[in-house]
Specification:
The protein has 269 residues and is an all-alpha fold. Helix content is 81%, strand content 0%. It has one domain.
Length: 269
């Protein structure tokens, strides 16, 4: 109970809700350039545009998914030189989002950003590339995983139960990739020296929270929330922003948990 009370106090003092709103804004700015960049890479990857949208569809509310598919299609039809523009826009907007995450984590640890501006921006860009790489791997794995599972089933006479277990393992791998991304993020982003193992509590919370909040919010919107009736044609945008806002809260909460754990280990720091 004391831990919960302390966490609530930290959330109020560090303006977590305000920082999460800032993250939601940058997430929205980064989304379409990122999707645009990934789609232009399709000729070089063993995946399709449906694979990319399918990953988002697993978590995004239906109204937001329609908005994403519609706008992505319009952007692709209007612009032929997508790769270079998409790459620049993705790196810039996503690195701004990661810079906001760094700011939120530094506030959680009660430290100031002493790293040089260029170094901090380079770190944000490097983390952006890392997140893009992990996202691409997460997209490719199901494709290759499905092919490998079918191969073993047909070549060695495995039963359909093996294929079912294999598919479940692919979900586990996707979760582990998300956990690895959060671990690296919580380890490198704050301007504090800490061991990688010390950020595992926050990374585990964020990984589980990301999945639970996404699925729960999607279910709520589809079952009870009718945002189109309130906001009209921009209902999909509102749902998308709320989803990003909730994800921002989860990410910053993970940083607060790690900061709280760090203070308990080193009370005099």
């Amino acid at each position: 109970m004391m831990l919960v009370t302390e966490l609530i106090k930290r959330v109020q003092e560090d303006d977590v809700m305000g920082m999460a709103a800032q993250l939601a804004y940058f997430f929205l700015l980064s989304l379409f350039p990122l999707l645009l960049f990934l789609v232009t890479l399709l000729p070089y990857l063993p995946i399709s545009s449906e694979d990319i949208l399918g990953v988002i569809r697993e978590y995004a509310p239906e109204e937001s998914m329609k908005l994403i598919e519609h706008n992505l299609g319009e952007i692709m039809n209007q612009n032929g030189r997508l790769l270079s523009i998409g790459a620049i826009a993705t790196i810039w907007s996503a690195s701004n989002g990661l810079a906001s995450i760094v700011k939120a984590f530094n506030k959680a640890y009660n430290v100031k950003e002493s790293r040089h501006f260029l170094m901090a921006r380079a770190m944000s860009i490097l983390l952006t590339f890392a997140m893009i790489f992990v996202f691409v791997v997460a997209l490719i794995l199901p494709v290759f995983g499905r092919q490998i599972g079918i191969f073993f089933t047909s070549a060695y006479g495995f039963t359909d139960e093996f294929l079912y277990i294999w598919n479940a393992m692919r979900w586990l791998i996707s979760f582990l990739l998300l956990f690895m991304v959060f671990t690296v993020l919580y380890w490198i982003a704050p301007n504090v020296k800490q061991k990688c193992l010390h950020v595992i509590p926050g990374a585990a919370f964020a990984s589980v929270g990301w999945n639970v909040v996404s699925l729960a919010f999607a279910y709520y919107v589809e079952s009870y929330g009718n945002y189109s009736a309130t906001y009209g044609s921009i209902g999909g945008v509102i749902v998308l922003m709320i989803w990003f806002y909730l994800l921002g809260i989860i990410i910053i909460f993970g940083g607060e948990i790690n900061a709280m754990s760090s203070e308990r280990r080193n009370p005099n720091c």
